[in-house]
Write a structure and sequence with these properties.
The structure is a homodimer of 449-residue chains.
Chain A lengths: L2 E6 L1 H4 L6 H12 L4 E7 L3 H14 L2 E5 L10 H8 L4 E3 L1 H14 L5 H6 L1 E3 L3 E3 L8 E7 L1 H13 L1 H13 L4 E7 L3 H19 L4 E10 L3 H13 L6 E7 L2 E10 L2 H18 L4 E4 L4 H12 L3 E5 L5 H7 L8 E7 L2 H8 L3 H7 L4 H15 L3 E7 L14 E8 L2 E8 L4 H21 L6
Parallel strand pairs in A: 1-2, 1-3, 3-8, 13-14, 13-15
Antiparallel strand pairs in A: 4-5, 6-7, 7-8, 9-11, 9-12, 10-11, 15-16, 16-17
Helix pairs in contact in A: 2-9, 3-4, 7-8, 12-17
């Protein structure tokens, strides 16, 4: 069974908007035992939409389309859909009432533009949108080949032909299913989970899919590949390995498909045990773990707390931590001390230290970590100071120079790192490196509870 | 001239990695007068790569492919490329020396895996990679139709056929150009700018493209569409309008293409003047402006400074601000006061205020803003407090309740907002709303310089 995802939008094709919808849909399909085999992004033009639907009809069993259903005039999708499926728009009282209910809850009044959104193609099954005004639409259409075959077979006896046609219409596997969804991410996601996934499960038997991703921090892709070479060469044919590098992190994904979930899961897990023996010090987690979520779990278990003093990372570590719901249980706060004065005033870094060693130094990282730990009265504290770039370098401190300080219940230390030239990557690498240093430090101590 | 972008990678198709490469490439093409007409994402499988290259050959003039060139075993692209272009891999001494130079600079030793990366298809033009080990590759290939036509025409007189073939080989417009790039974003980007764009400009005349995006904050898409309806109906046929909503922000993009840059630019600018008169209070900037960059520019001009006290936004505003290189000129720092104790200790919020009004209240927002302003000795301060969700709601304060405080050189005020249910969206909406409140506040005051 082949699923193609089509995203419609000029804004994606000029790079103004990143296609996160496709990624999200694909992940959700996977979790439910389905697999996207292609993503296609096309423009908001009639010809291109018609062409892409036609191409998809010929190669896919299910086509999931998002975008182009908004209330505004750039949205020609609905008209083009009617052309492709040979139907017409009719006003749906039910759809209109939903829009009215939604708007009255928010205290808005329905506009003329919204009325247009209650017009739907006559031949579709319309899918409710709990969070917005654009409804989803489901169609089925036979491929031309199917159509042709039916016609040819029908030539012998007229009645036989009719019978074949009827049978094929009844058998949904000979049809391609098209589901149109709004492009606004949170509306699309709600509809996808509630309306699309259950329908796919009803029609198609999901395959057993097993992915497991091993998360590593601290070494680059080719360094890891070299250590893993023998193991990788001995992987069973049907287990695929992919290296997925991110700033500071390399993820290793093992994937396999099969008919029995327990069997494929067992195979992958056994390979991961072997892998673990080869690079134990690099692995920090699996799948959707993040360093911040793991640090959070450890601190929760140990009933301990964290604070942060950020210069180089400018609030990014605090943002990662506070993106986790419930982090207030173990995270007290952060001081983003961008100026020297704030390092002195709020984090008690000594003026003398700043003057004699400079803000980017081991001593300042140590004092910042201790300052945050004292200020927020936490068990642990992270501190970052460095030159993220592109400006700010000095003869002995090139762009990419970072010091990370870690204060613990019984001491403080700082480590030096030399990262690259790119500001954004440097901020991210420093953040994950700091969180991983903290994780390892917590793990050296027994759980007091 | 049609440009297709193909990204190869199972990790994209299972949703583990978001396809930011395509977005970046498309944006870079646009800036240089080119336009991507389709993105296609396919799996790391031989059949799928061959099929996608064949499809692209038939519909595109230029095909830009990224991914699948890494040093590790999941990369079968190079072998498949050889099959498609009917060539073979040979070891390139030059490519190998580049890898050695790159590694010795970083203090790494070359591994066997890296040696394989110096193997390149014999018939390609190889493109240097300054930042990594995988080289780019450029090929040209005629479409089958062209090949066939040449052959058919050749049937009449053998010599004529040869001549036609030679002419078509010489004329690059009858060829499709394929350029393969590594998938690692920063390597791909460097190569794209240095090697791809100049070659495209040499071969194809870039069209005049003019996009301008108007950035608005404060109202939703359908509210704006309603106000703009008449203006939108009267837009010239060749100017396209798109609504691009983001949390807290709606971007309105006007696009047009033509032969004369001055003319199309003039047309779009004149429409934007009319637009400006309709929603002056909602517009905060254009194109790649961000609220943080505009606030930064204003503060630089006014020689004034900013500090932040973040509870609900947890460091996200500080992260936005410090992602701007040079922000240390006007940004002093932020206190992420996640706990009540840190609000008291570091921001001088009174315990009494916290106890009688709760942490999510007008009074606390006011005191946090004043506390940050005093602490960091800045001209302005932003404060956020709220319930980002999904937990933390109380009977009178639902999830989505936020207070934003703004301290200025001559006072302080706070505003109440009720956003939605989604934690991430709430954090983003609060951040842009706070920055916009500050921007408006700064603009009410004359530039002291």
């Amino acid at each position: 069974m082949k699923i193609e995802i089509i995203n419609i939008g000029d804004e994606i094709l000029i790079g103004q908007v990143i296609n996160t919808n496709a990624a999200w849909m694909a992940e959700e399909l996977n979790r439910n035992g389905f697999k996207a085999f292609q993503f296609t992004v096309i423009s908001d033009s009639r010809e291109h939409i018609l062409q892409a639907l036609e191409d998809a009809l010929n190669r896919a069993d299910v086509v999931l389309i998002s975008g182009g259903l908004g209330p505004t005039k750039d949205d020609i999708t609905k008209e083009t859909i009617c052309e492709f499926f040979d139907t017409k728009l009719i006003f749906s009282e039910e759809a209109f009432q939903n829009i009215e209910t939604l708007f009255s809850r928010r205290g808005y009044t329905v506009t003329e533009v919204n009325r247009k959104q209650a017009e739907l193609p006559e031949s579709c099954i319309s899918l409710p949108n709990r969070l917005g005004t654009a409804r989803g639409m489901l169609f089925e259409r036979r491929t031309k080949e199917e159509g042709r075959r039916t016609k040819d077979e029908g030539r012998g006896t007229k009645d036989e032909g009719r019978e074949t046609k009827k049978l094929q219409t009844a058998n949904c596997k000979l049809q391609t299913v098209f589901i149109f969804l709004p492009g606004v991410p949170f509306e699309m996601k709600d509809m996808f989970t509630r309306e699309v996934i259950p329908r796919l499960k009803e029609r198609f038997a999901p395959q057993a899919i097993y992915h497991k991703t091993v998360l590593t921090q601290g070494k680059g892709e080719s360094f890891i590949a070299d250590i893993l070479e023998d193991w990788e060469n001995n992987l069973p044919e049907h287990i695929k390995l992919a290296y997925l590098p991110q700033p500071g992190i390399v993820r290793l994904r093992l994937s396999t498909w099969g008919s029995e979930e327990d069997v494929i899961k067992q195979e992958v897990e056994s390979e991961i045990s072997k892998l673990h023996q080869l690079i134990p010090e690099l692995i920090f987690g699996f799948d959707n773990d993040t360093l911040e979520s793991i640090v959070g779990q450890l601190l929760m278990q140990h009933k301990q707390t964290l604070s942060i003093a950020e210069s180089a990372t400018g609030g990014y570590i605090a943002h990662l931590v506070t993106s986790l719901s419930g982090s207030s249980a173990w995270f007290q706060g952060s001081v983003v001390a961008y100026s020297n004065r704030s390092k002195e005033d709020i984090l008690y870094v000594k003026r003398d230290t700043l003057e004699s060693h400079g803000a980017v130094s081991e001593q300042v990282a140590l004092e910042m970590a201790l300052g945050a730990r004292g200020r927020f009265r936490t068990d642990y504290a992270i501190a970052t100071t460095g030159i993220a770039g592109p400006s700010g370098e000095t003869p002995d401190k090139p762009v990419g120079t970072f010091w990370i300080g870690i204060a613990t219940p019984d001491g403080v230390f700082a480590k030096h790192f030399l990262f690259g030239d790119n500001r954004e990557r440097n901020i991210r690498r420093t953040a994950v490196t700091a969180l991983n240093l903290l994780r390892k430090e917590i793990l050296t101590r027994p759980n007091p509870y």
